[in-house]
Structures are given as structure tokens and as C-alpha cells.
């Protein structure tokens, strides 16, 4: 069995209310083992036979639509992939970790799309960005709340959806894995 993390976007925001107990139950009904929600809404640890994570992402997105009528992006990562998402983030340690995020993406954007994102955002704020493996590293410098670097802005330029977590939360999740 492999230990996985499912990171759900759009949970308990914008009217998409879902109790974590209900989400755990849905995982357990699908025969996933050692299901546990961690840190905050939309983070689920589980064990399952080793398989490509993109198939699991599709299954969970379907499960959310079918069972809860929620259209949600889901990023699934293994423990090693999560570790890399923290350790490879070039902004860790340079700023307050609550401002440093990893934005998990559904695909790997090409360099031209990333360059467009950086260029289009240049006059909008002080955020710093770096491209990772199926993720975008972001230092929000002055905080996320007032930032103009929103998920919608990112997704339009990169051509893929994502969901972000700060590295402080990711470190706590990694410790639980």
C-alpha cells in the first residue's frame, strides 16, 4: 500500500460546504484505507495500491460531483512528491512560511505560459514565483489576502487548475504521512 495525500480545491469556500466526516466516509466507501483528514478542509491522507495519481484525481473529482454536487479540482501526491513540493520550494526560509505557498497543478505548464504569468503579474504586486514539477512556488511577500495573484489569474495564464497550501501546513501534513 502507498500513502497518498489528496488536496481538494474549492472546499468550504464559495458556498461549497462539506463536513470532513462526510468526505472521510466517501473515501472509506470507495475502499481506501487509513483515511484521515488533516490540518484544514480538503486535505485527505489515505492508503491505496500504488497507481498513477492522475487516475485518482479523476476518480475523486467524479466522487465530489456525484456525491456532493461540488465541482472540485483534486491534486493527489505521494509522500515523496509532497516532500519535494516543500524542499524544492526556493522561497522556504526566505520569508514568513505562512506567506510561502506551493500551488499544486493538474498539469505541467510549459515555460512560455509560466513566463506569460510572470510578465502579466509584474506590475500587479511583489509576489515571487518559480515553476516546479506540476506545481508553482509562490512567495506572497505581503500576504495572500490582498494579493492580486489569485488562483483564477494563475489558471488563465498557465492553462490548468490548481490548489495552494502554505509550506507551514504542508510540513505538518508531511509529518503526519
Helices and strands, with pairings:
Elements: E1 2-8, H1 20-29, E2 33-37, E3 43-48, H2 53-68, E4 74-78, H3 79-87, E5 100-105, H4 111-121, E6 128-132, E7 135-139, H5 151-158, E8 162-166, H6 167-176
Antiparallel strand pairs: 1-3, 1-4, 2-3, 5-7, 5-8, 6-7
Helix pairs in contact: 3-6, 4-5
Kindly list the characteristics that best describe this protein.
8 strands, Alpha-Beta Plaits, 4-stranded antiparallel β-sheet, alpha+beta, 177 residues
Gyration radius, rounded:
16 Å
Percent of residues in β-strands? 15-25%
Count of DSSP helices? 6
Q: Residue ranges: pLDDT <50 for 5 or more in a row?
A: none
Total tally of structural domains:
2
Strand order of the largest sheet: 2-3-1-4
Secondary structural class: alpha+beta
- Give the % helix: 25-40%
Straight-line distance between termini: 13 Å
Number of strands: 8
Quick one: overall form? globular
Residue-averaged pLDDT: 91
Oligomer class: single chain
Instruction: Please give the largest β-sheet.
Output: 4 strands, antiparallel
Order of helices and strands: EHEEHEHEHEEHEH
